[in-house]
Write a structure and sequence with these properties.
alpha/beta, Rossmann fold, eight-stranded mixed sheet, two-stranded antiparallel sheet, 29 helices, elongated
């Protein structure tokens, strides 16, 4: 049960309307919600367009009055009714009104001394009992309390005693800033001994005109509020001109596509995101934990992560999200334990297996890691990135399995999301290139593929064909582009395909590659890019430039020794082998031999004048 109070220092900001819209949205999300009208001087929840009780229902004032008369906490069931047909997906909405709406209401209210209730009649215990009755009778996921305005004893009950969080709605003027300064300070003081109760605050600028702020009036007022109240990211609910407001329409239900409804939904998301008892709130917290460490401090965040793990110990998705954080922190064994629990709980997703495989590799357990990678390759729901990640793990742990596990993926290619992206990364061996060629060929004939995806697949297929020594087919594929290759990568590949198919270096095509390098290789320092331009420079007789570019490619790969695609072999290779290919290129520059490995044993006619 998560209790949130809606408070405003002054009226006119749509506090009650915001509460009911948030409550309705929560019920439509499948949550059990109890709304409590604690605006006892001016109750109004029952005036909004939510179903009412078929009979007069007593409320907070009657509950407290009966307690003061009898000395016993009444049965809260007599003071709560359900608003039928509001929720969806199992969500339900319950209401505890301010009191029975009759001619004696204000008399009953005026006879309650709220300060004396706490000082002499165990008011604190009474409301703790009421909270427990809410828990047992309604079992709400959320309790939303509509608090009265100003500085009052009742306001203190609503903003400090009862809630886990407070939504503070305000119009950004000086009167609200002056009044809220004390309220916010008092709420935050609850986090200090003896209470030690941290109450989350959500600040919402409300009833804001949707006008240009050319004079920075709103910006300057917000700056003042940020400084005085330590506000991080306030939400905004704009003034909304609609006659539906006269009927107090519930926008999140009746007009869900309106801007006002979207703003109420954003507020709902903010409330849910702070409630780690709600699995959606727990997931949002875990996904933003890195950012929250800066604002809340690492100790507080880590404690909340521990609490989340305890509260959601059988929720596989939550455990998986927690494992992701532990991995980032280097707590690998703890991450594996969480992933084991996540998978055992039924969250056997490709991501879970991949993350566990990565963790097992770090711990030096390649056999176990490869088993998880195999599970991903067998998963029908795995997307292109997940499949590529699994293949990468197998390359590092059990590469001998790849010739067995890759061919079946060809028959599944049509069902893989972004199959071309997956196939493009199968370029570490000729066996992989052969599988990639089959998948890319299928992509080119798939009518569902977008023009951009088809163009990318065509380029990738040409590279796979070159890597397999099928130069004529690659050249024909690139020649089929209207007007010929215009992209520098396609032009380079076209030149390599023609070289491989004819045995003669096509100087004109390589010159075109150099012309297309509008950046003069200054802004693109990728090792492969520099290597390709070095080869093109050699092919056009620019030896000094070729040596300079090759040297820069060497510096780049040494600086960041990651695997890199090498145009010398048309394969992705480890950094050490990329350096070896640059060495071979150096011999070619000086001695006219050897040819790029991708050319195999094909003939070679030296350039004229060499």
């Amino acid at each position: 049960m998560y209790v949130t109070t809606f408070y405003s220092f002054k009226g006119g900001v749509g506090r009650t309307m915001a509460l009911v819209n948030v409550a309705t949205q929560l019920a439509q999300m499948g949550r059990r919600v109890l709304i409590v009208d604690f605006d006892l001087e001016a109750p109004g929840l029952d005036t909004l367009a939510i179903p009412r009780s078929t009979k007069p229902t007593p409320g907070i004032v009657d509950f407290v009055s009966e307690y003061l008369t009898t000395g016993q906490a009444p049965d809260a069931a007599d003071f709560i009714y359900e608003a039928d047909w509001v929720g969806r997906q199992g969500g339900r909405l319950f209401v505890m009104p301010a009191g029975r709406n009759d001619e004696l209401y204000h008399d009953r209210f005026s006879h309650i001394d709220w300060a004396a209730l706490y000082e002499h009649h165990d008011g604190f215990i009474l409301f703790e009992d009421l909270k427990e009755q809410w828990r047992q009778l309604v079992a709400p996921d959320y309790v939303l309390i509509d608090s009265r305005t100003g500085h009052t004893d009742v306001g203190g009950i609503c903003t400090r005693h009862l809630p886990d969080s407070v939504v503070i709605l305000f119009f950004p003027n000086e009167q609200n800033l002056r009044g809220l300064t004390k309220v916010v300070r008092d709420i935050r003081s609850e986090a200090t001994p003896p209470r030690n109760k941290k109450i989350e605050l959500h600040f919402v600028m409300s009833n804001i005109p949707d006008l240009d702020d050319e004079d920075l009036i709103l910006a300057n007022r917000l700056k003042d509020f940020r400084a005085a109240l330590s506000i991080d990211e306030p939400l905004t609910i704009h003034r909304y001109d609609s006659l539906s407001l006269l009927n107090q329409t519930i926008f999140t239900r009746e007009r869900p596509r309106s801007r006002l409804a979207r703003e109420y939904v954003e507020l709902t998301d903010r409330v849910v995101g702070a409630n780690t008892e709600d699995r959606e709130g727990a997931l949002r917290f875990l996904r933003s934990a890195q950012r929250l460490r800066t604002r809340k401090g690492p100790g507080a965040v880590d404690q909340q992560i521990t609490d989340i793990i305890s509260k959601h110990s059988r929720d596989g998705e939550v455990l998986h999200a927690a494992a992701t954080i532990r991995m980032r922190e280097g707590r690998v064994e703890e991450a594996i334990s969480l992933l084991n629990e996540s998978i055992e709980s039924g969250y056997a997703s490709p991501d879970a297996f991949l993350q566990r495989a990565d963790s097992l590799r770090i711990l030096g357990k390649p056999e176990d890691a490869s088993l998880d990678a195999l599970k991903v390759l067998e998963a029908s729901e795995a997307d292109s990135y997940q499949l590529e990640h699994a293949v990468r793990i197998l390359r590092a742990t059990r590469p001998s399995l790849l010739p067995q596990v890759l061919p079946p993926l060809v028959t599944r290619a049509a069902k893989i999301r972004n199959p071309g992206s997956f196939a493009a990364r199968l370029n570490w061996s000729t066996d992989e290139l052969a599988i990639g060629r089959e998948i890319l060929s299928m992509v080119l004939t798939d009518s569902r593929v977008s023009p951009n995806e088809r163009e990318s697949a065509r380029s990738q297929l040409a590279m796979a064909l070159i890597g397999l020594g099928e130069f004529e087919q690659a050249a024909e594929l690139l020649d089929s582009v209207a007007g010929g290759p215009a992209d520098i990568a396609d032009m380079f590949n076209h030149a390599m395909a023609v070289w491989g198919s004819t045995g003669e270096v096509p100087k004109t095509l390589f010159e075109r590659v150099r012309e297309l390098d509008l950046r003069d290789a200054d802004t693109n320092g990728a090792p492969n890019y520099l290597q390709c331009l070095a080869l093109a420079s050699w092919a056009t007789g620019n030896i000094g430039e070729a040596e300079t570019l090759s040297h820069r490619a060497r510096q780049a790969i040494v600086r960041r020794p990651n695997p890199e695609f090498s145009c010398w072999r048309y394969l992705t290779v480890p950094a050490t082998e990329f350096v070896s290919d640059l060495d071979s290129f150096g011999h070619l520059v000086k001695h006219g031999r050897p040819l790029p490995t991708v050319m195999g044993s094909r003939g070679y006619r030296p350039l004229v004048g060499r």
